[in-house]
Amino acid sequence: MNPEPRLVRCRWVIAIWAVCFVIAIIGSLAMGFLMESISGFWTTTVLSFIAYGGIAFGLYLACRAQGIKIPQLIGPVPPLSPLIKYAATAIPVFLSSLGGAWLISLFAPHFFDGLLSEVMRNRPVGVFQTLLTFVLFVVLAPVVEEFTFRALLFTRLSAKYSPAKAIVISSLMFGLLHFDFIGAFVFGLVAATLYAQSRSLLAPIALHSVNNLIAFTAFAADSDSDGPIPVWIGLPGLLIGLPFAHGFLPDGQGLG
What is the pTM of this model? Predict the structure, then answer.
């Protein structure tokens, strides 16, 4: 991918994320201390919206300061048929995420216990809370994260390294943001490759949104989702998802 003449430095992107999440954590602690009657759902959700909103605004200011035209980073709107194909890629990618989480739980059985208990304690109740959660995870998070890791970080890294190396490094950075590092890393490889090949940010956004929609639907439908991933789900995830994702491993060809 041809880099933009001016690009936001990686350190500034990381700093914006770090500052916004530190503010969100401090706000969460303050709200929990001052307003104990407020449920954990509202604390987590409101501060998540604030954090993602702050990140989006910070990235906008960083792009503006560098004279970067955001529409050029987003790229063209793909035709409907390829866009559906990009979105459908989320199915095997989601399977690989389940397989990766299952693999982690084999070596660290209690690795996800704290996260799962926190998620279950703050799960949405009622239509309005469910709608807010949907907007957060299926709309806002995919847009902000894809703009961060694909439009900004991958593009910046592509100006310094080969596209293949930029895909791997940006995917590692994306993986570090998530508890399920293996699944998130594989997801990052696929998302960055789609962005490089399609030259449109809407491709990984479609992938990300459908991936989160699958997780959101499974979570909303399963009242016992705090249990471990069973072998009959985790093993097929590895056997089906990872070989599929392997096809997206960068070989340095067709990505420039």
Answer: 0.90
